[in-house]
């Protein structure tokens, strides 16, 4: 999996707020001619769809589920900002502190949900728990007596990454071709699993936050302290030095 650029929460929030404001402005526009009225009606539907999408993103980001939150006040602030009201240093500081509190609350909730899931999952048939807390299930065994992945090897794999709710955040299958990666450059949960796998093996990994990205994921698609579920199929192993490093997970 390629490393994606991490976007600062405050910057993301500002961008989203601007988009919401533009949607509100479009919805508020009125015209007199039938053609213009039809266009406005379509614009309102588009604006609602955009607002619904942004609302879902807000919720996924933890807004409204942690610290006290007022949607009415949020919308008033957006309207004031679009209207030209300047943001004071105190208001900017409050916005930043609030977003940090939201992120921290979401991280704590995700960590708790991950721990609860792992406790129950460990009791499922076929699930193995390692000393580090990694859990995995062998879906297809690898080639018997074949070499496993060394710490400096490169591997060719097919994989699919999902969150606990089943939503997919990354997949080599979706890109239509296997990924070539350096074993040393993957998250800790992957490194541990690859060291136990031989070519032909397909495993399902249940990776705790501390063996994944923890509270600072590389992309907004992965929430802070998210437990990650990966289906990993090891196609081949290439010893280090046999070829140039193909890339990082």
Please explain how this structure is put together.
The structure is a single chain. With 249 residues, the chain is of the alpha+beta class. Helices cover 41% and strands 17% of the residues. Strands 1, 2, 3, 4, 5, 6 and 7 form a seven-stranded antiparallel β-sheet that branches. It is elongated, with a radius of gyration of 23 Å. The termini are close together. Mean pLDDT is 82; it is low at 1-31 and 244-249.
Please give a handful of descriptors for the protein shown:
elongated; 249 residues; alpha+beta; disordered N terminus; 41% helix; disordered C terminus
| Class based on secondary structure composition and strand pairing | alpha+beta
Secondary-structure element series: HHHHEEEEHEHEE
Strand content: 15-25%
* Chain-averaged pLDDT: 82
Describe the main β-sheet briefly: 7 strands, antiparallel
- Unreliable segments of 5+ consecutive residues: 1-31, 244-249
Number of helices: 6
Write down how many β-strands occur, each being a DSSP E stretch of 2 or more residues.
7
What is the rounded distance between the termini?
4 Å
Shape: elongated
Radius of gyration (Å): 23 Å
Write the layout of secondary structure elements.
Blueprint: H1 9-28, H2 34-60, H3 71-82, H4 89-121, E1 127-129, E2 135-140, E3 154-162, E4 168-171, H5 172-175, E5 179-182, H6 188-194, E6 202-207, E7 228-238
Antiparallel strand pairs: 1-2, 2-6, 3-4, 3-5, 3-7, 6-7
């Amino acid at each position: 999996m390629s490393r994606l650029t991490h976007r600062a929460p405050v910057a993301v929030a500002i961008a989203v707020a601007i988009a919401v404001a533009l949607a509100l402005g479009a919805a508020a526009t009125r015209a007199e001619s039938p053609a213009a009225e039809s266009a406005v009606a379509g614009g309102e539907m588009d604006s609602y769809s955009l607002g619904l999408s942004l609302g879902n993103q807000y919720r996924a980001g933890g807004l409204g589920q942690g610290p006290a939150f007022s949607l009415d006040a949020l919308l008033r602030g957006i309207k004031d900002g679009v209207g030209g009201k300047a943001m004071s240093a105190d208001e900017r500081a409050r916005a930043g502190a609030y977003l940090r509190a939201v992120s921290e609350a979401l991280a704590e909730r995700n960590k708790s949900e991950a721990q609860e899931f792992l406790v129950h999952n460990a009791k499922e048939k076929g699930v193995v728990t390692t000393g580090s807390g990694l859990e995995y299930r062998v879906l297809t065994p690898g080639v018997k007596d074949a070499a496993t992945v060394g710490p400096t090897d490169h591997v060719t794999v097919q994989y699919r990454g999902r969150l606990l709710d089943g939503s997919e955040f990354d997949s080599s299958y979706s890109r239509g071709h296997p990924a070539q990666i350096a074993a040393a450059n993957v998250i800790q949960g992957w490194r541990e699993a690859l060291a136990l796998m031989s070519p032909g093996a397909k495993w399902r990994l249940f990776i705790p936050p501390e063996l994944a990205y923890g509270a600072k994921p590389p992309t907004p698609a992965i929430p802070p302290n998210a437990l990650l579920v990966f289906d990993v199929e090891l196609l081949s192993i290439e010893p280090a030095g046999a070829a140039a490093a193909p890339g990082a997970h």
